[in-house]
Write a sequence for this structure.
């Protein structure tokens, strides 16, 4: 195989990564347009797909598409990096796949029952899913960063992994410290993971060492 040519898997990884990111932001933009009175400064992104949200049908269509794209992307990343780079990096990718699977299935099964937290069973399960997603995200990014810093040509991805992780923590702290701007703080956490998927896809596309 010529090293100056990208594999078919790399093209699929890039397309899925970018498509998933676009679908996610379309769910936010179009969902907000079909939710009268929605306030992104104070309301969570999850409110757009809540059971009683007027935007639920349209927004959910895009989140489902995002879930399919990101899970497929992560599976391809596992295949692409199988036996390559180093163990911390690969384990980080595997955990990232698990996180995306939990996110895609969990949020579909347990949407918020209404805006905010109403205390219903599905709201509790929604929060459980969120905790699992956060824990898996943190563990995966740390391991990916560790693996990247062990390989000179992967240091940029390691730095970007730590930046994404830092934004997640900033968002988590902000939701508690600035309740009046809960929506803004929450988006730091949510958007950092979404954009990180695109970063992984782009990096894999330009990664010639693992071909």
């Amino acid at each position: 195989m010529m090293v100056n040519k990208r594999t078919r898997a790399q093209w699929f990884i890039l397309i899925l990564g970018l498509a998933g990111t676009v679908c996610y932001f379309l769910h936010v933009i179009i969902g907000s347009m079909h939710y009268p009175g929605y306030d992104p400064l104070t309301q969570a992104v999850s409110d757009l797909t809540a059971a009683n949200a007027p935007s639920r049908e349209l927004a959910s269509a895009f989140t489902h598409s995002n879930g399919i794209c990101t899970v497929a992307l992560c599976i391809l990343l596992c295949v692409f990096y199988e036996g390559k780079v180093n163990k911390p990096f690969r384990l980080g990718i595997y955990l990232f796949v698990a996180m995306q699977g939990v996110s895609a299935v969990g949020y579909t099964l347990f949407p918020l029952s209404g805006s905010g937290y109403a205390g219903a069973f599905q709201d509790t399960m929604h929060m459980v899913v969120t905790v699992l997603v956060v824990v898996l995200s943190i563990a995966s990014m740390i391991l990916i960063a560790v693996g990247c810093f062990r390989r000179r040509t992967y240091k940029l991805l390691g730095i970007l992994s730590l930046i994404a992780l830092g934004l997640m923590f900033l968002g988590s702290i902000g939701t508690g410290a600035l309740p009046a701007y809960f929506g803004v703080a929450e988006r730091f956490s949510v958007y950092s993971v979404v954009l990180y998927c695109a970063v992984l896809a782009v990096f894999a596309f330009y990664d010639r060492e693992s071909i």
Residues 29 and 195 are 16 Å apart (CA to CA). Helices lie at 8-33, 56-80, 87-109, 121-149, 155-177, 182-206. The two ends are 8 Å apart (CA to CA). The chain has a mean pLDDT of 88.
